[in-house]
Amino acid sequence: MHDSSEMAFVNVSKEINDQPSVRLSVKDEVLLNAHATTNVTCTANSLLANIVWSVYGDTQLIVCNKSQECEINIFPLDTNEHRNYTCTAYFESGNYSLSTSSSFVAVGRASTRCKDKAIEGIAVGLSVFIAVVIISMAIVFARKRKVESGSGF
């Protein structure tokens, strides 16, 4: 560990003057359907780094030591839930330590699969109802015809 008088922390979000940076495999926002999961990768663009994934800025989830990539699995969210994930890479270079971070928000939304299944169920139920009505009408007309012709059923 370095003496604190020798440490300097610099937050950078883009590579400027060959400063290390990180990039995420997603944009600023990730929309997740109910019960869905996804993986997000944080990549350090130059040196090996100690990469730390955290949620809500303070709860560490994963630490990848001396790595260039670190992947996190985003678990299902409740509908309208928002989680802020941050990837921070800590680089050591000579007497200095540099850190850079990037964040995204995971947003839970209602599953379209549930809506599709409900619509599918309604369509099947309606089809069965229509089939029963048609078959019933056919039976009624057949009986009526037999009764009119005098042959009975």
UniProtKB/TrEMBL annotation:
The keyword Transmembrane applies. PROSITE patterns: IG_LIKE (PS50835). InterPro entries: Ig-like_dom, Ig-like_dom_sf. The chain crosses the membrane at residues 121-142. Residues 20-103 form the Ig-like domain. Keywords: Membrane, Transmembrane, Transmembrane helix. This is Ig-like domain-containing protein.
